[in-house]
From TrEMBL:
One BP annotation, GO: fatty acid biosynthetic process
Name the UniProt record assigns to this protein: AMP-binding protein
Domain of life: Bacteria
Family: Belongs to the ATP-dependent AMP-binding enzyme family.
Keyword Hydrolase among record annotations: no
A Pfam family the protein falls into: AMP-binding
UniProt keyword list: ATP-binding, Ligase, Nucleotide-binding
Originating organism: Acinetobacter ursingii
GO molecular function: ATP binding; fatty acid ligase activity; fatty-acyl-CoA synthase activity
Domain AMP-dependent synthetase/ligase: 41-387
Length: 422
């Protein structure tokens, strides 16, 4: 296994661009990076488990065809590169097709979590100047009194079929919609993050971030071609969208998407069915696992190889349980919507592991702990966690929407989190 020190020494951004991107700094497209480049290899891109017991697989070829048709529809209603298209959808194939179609025309995908109420949706749509919302019948009522340019709805079989809907427009168009290439500094995601006060702030995510997402999946998650991978997080939020969809697909790795509500019993069922060996999620989910630990038998334990956790620190009993009952390491990792994952205990790199620690900077990043005067502290120092922008070539965050750079001081991005350097 390569050491973390070796990975730091070998890091070369230009070499990374040449080796890992299908495009380059001035000619890149997220659809091409996450789907198009893998067409023709007969690889499964999506396994979908429906809320009513349906199960269906889609290859990269099929997703390319469907998203090409939808992208053609988008251009027919005058959507173009740089426009914002939102998805207010559950974990379904239509969600992934919408994302890929948006990227194909060089537009910006905006996730809307399905548990949001109308006010939260309205603020996000107005702030992002969203041109189209793709939703379904269950969510459509939230949009009724909002000022939205256009809505495309996924209808059920028993709905009014005389109205235009998601699948009817897809079947109307052919799949040869041209791919619109952009530069690495152009945005492809429009996220939102809420601070301690005030309204949620927009977080534009540039195409450059795909490289950083790949780095986390490769070094920290240790995603391998042969893995059966499952990210438990919802793609309406950053961790689910960055590392449940974009990251694995950019590596040509299929994803598992479950439309049913999360429960321990449901998670166990799917982990057994798909022999999941690489699992990521939040500490909340893993605490729920621990609360029903008697339900996890050898048919689950025998397959798990690595587990990654993000969002908040893991509790010692959860770490101990995975290690002693599963013989598996569950590692803490750290990130923000604004940063993606930038610190972690790395499954694929050898380094010292200290329980309770978030770990080390993911290659391509450097962090520091600052005092109240924004001076770097040494070992044992307690201060605010910051990212050294000058020494972090994979850092992609440029500021909140409206050129809001209040979180930047000198060469540092200030996370706002208090930590101790150990």
């Amino acid at each position: 296994m390569k050491t973390l020190t070796q990975a730091y020494a070998e890091f070369d951004l230009n070499q990374l661009i040449q080796q890992q991107l299908n495009g380059h700094e001035q000619r890149i497209n997220a659809f091409e990076e996450c789907c198009g480049r893998y067409v023709g290899h007969d690889k499964v891109a999506l396994i979908w488990e429906g809320k009513n017991g349906e199960q269906q697989s889609y290859t990269f070829d099929q997703l390319a065809e469907y998203s090409g048709k939808l992208a053609h529809y988008f251009t027919s209603i005058h959507l173009q590169a740089g426009d914002c298209i939102a998805g207010l959808l559950p974990r379904t194939p239509e969600l992934l097709i919408t994302i890929l179609a948006t990227w194909r025309i060089g537009a910006i995908y905006q996730p809307l979590f399905t548990a949001f109420e109308s006010k939260a949706i309205e603020h996000r749509l107005e702030t992002a100047k969203t041109k189209l919302v793709v939703t379904n019948i269950d969510q459509q009522s939230k949009l009724e009194n909002l000022n939205i340019n256009q809505i495309l709805t996924v209808k059920n079989i028993d709905d009014d079929q005389n109205q235009e809907d998601f699948w009817s427009v897809i079947h109307t168009f052919d799949a040869d919609c041209p791919i619109e290439y952009r530069s690495c500094d152009d945005d492809f995601l429009m996220m939102f993050t809420s601070g301690t006060t005030g309204l949620a702030k927009s977080v534009p995510v540039p195409l450059k971030a795909i490289l950083a997402f790949k780095g986390y999946m490769t070094h920290a998650v240790d995603l391998r071609e042969e893995d059966s991978f499952w990210n438990l997080a919802d793609p309406g939020w950053a961790y689910g969208l960055y590392y449940g969809i974009t990251g694995p697909l950019s590596l040509g790795h299929g994803i598992l998407m479950d439309e049913q509500a999360f429960s321990v019993d449901r998670a166990i069922e799917l982990m057994k069915k798909y022999q999941v060996n690489n699992l990521t999620g939040s500490p909340t989910a893993f605490r729920m696992f621990y609360g029903f630990k008697e339900k996890f038998d050898d048919s689950v334990k025998q397959h798990l190889r690595v587990v990654s956790s993000a969002g908040e620190p893991l509790t010692p009993e959860v770490i101990h349980w995975f290690k002693h009952d599963f013989n598996v390491n569950i590692y803490d990792q750290y990130g923000q919507t604004e940063l993606g994952m930038v610190i972690g205990n790395h499954h694929a790199l050898e380094h010292v592991i200290k329980i309770g620690s978030a770990g080390f900077a993911i290659p391509g990043h450097r962090f520091a702990v600052l005092d109240e005067n924004h001076q770097e502290l040494g070992e044992g120092g307690i201060g605010v966690l910051a990212i050294d922008c000058d020494a972090s070539p994979l850092l992609w965050f440029k500021g909140y929407g409206g050129n809001n750079r209040k979180s930047f001081v000198g060469k540092y991005y200030i996370t706002g989190d208090t930590v101790q350097l150990n």
